[in-house]
Amino acid sequence: MEHSKKMVPSYAGNLRSHMIQVPEVIAQCSGIRIFGRRIKSLVFSTDAAIIKNINADAVIAVYPFTPQPAIGRAVLMAADMPVLVGVGGGTTSGARVIRLGCDAEDQGAYGVVVNAPLPVEVIQDLKAHLEIPIVVTVVSSQTDIAARIEAGASIVNISGGARTAALVAAVREKFPDLPIIATGGPTEESVLETIQAGANAITYTPPTTGELFAGMMAKYRDMMAEG
Fold it and tell me: For residue range 137-173, what is the model confidence (pLDDT) as tens digits?
């Protein structure tokens, strides 16, 4: 009976056997349950081809441009898992963030992600308009997390570069029950360190389509040379 609990039967097929797999160590985190869906892994991408071919539990659609409804809608259409949509907070603020948040919710997003600089007052306004959770990005220990939680933030997304695990540990000590998403870093060891520091869910940055194509073309060239 114990063996049957641990064994996870799987099926990959032929055409999808080369899908991107998130690091297996992510399974060790607790996950965050949003509207009944338990999320442990989030793919950091807006690439429809990547999103359709990865086994992540959810998508975090944040990108380094002014948020646009068309991009959020495209990701939501491509994804067959929950999507957290970026709605600004840096250059984009105020009423535009509210409009983007409402549009994301109307299109089926499971949550909205706001950048660290977003004023607390805008988070309050956003909370007044949305039922879906507000995910606040935290990039340093200087962020006033308590004020953002009081304003309506439900989840924090910690992205502290090389100091992410330490920042997660500091936030977890101060907020024992706060749902924490965090970047896991480039290795299974760094992912595990972040989980052990207190992260409930991990964002994973997949290889780009260009990188994947390069590997595939090299394989094809080797096959042709052998044939």
Answer: 999 988 999 999 999 999 999 999 999 999 999 999 9
Strands (DSSP E) along the chain, which ranges?
32-34, 37-39, 41-44, 58-61, 83-86, 111-114, 134-138, 155-158, 180-183, 201-204
- Cα angle, residue 195 at apex, residues 87 and 206 outer, rounded to 5°: 55
46-93: pLDDT as tens digits: 999 999 999 999 999 999 898 999 999 999 999 999 999 999 877 777
**132-145 pLDDT, tens per residue?**
999 999 999 889 99
Distance of CA 89 to the CA centre of its chain: 17
Inter-residue contact 109 to 85 (CB < 8 Å)? yes
User: Which structure tokens are listed for 184?
Assistant: 């896991």
SS3 content of the chain, % helix, strand, coil (to 5): 40, 20, 40
Q: Cβ neighbours of residue 225 under 8 Å, at least 6 residues apart?
A: none
pTM of the predicted protein model: 0.90
Q: What is the largest CA-CA distance in the chain?
A: 65
Give the rounded distance of the alpha carbon of 10 from its chain centre.
24
CB-based contact 173:167 (threshold 8 Å): no
Task: Report the C-alpha gap between 35 and 52 in whole angstroms.
Answer: 22
Q: What is the rounded end-to-end Cα distance, in angstroms, of the chain?
A: 49
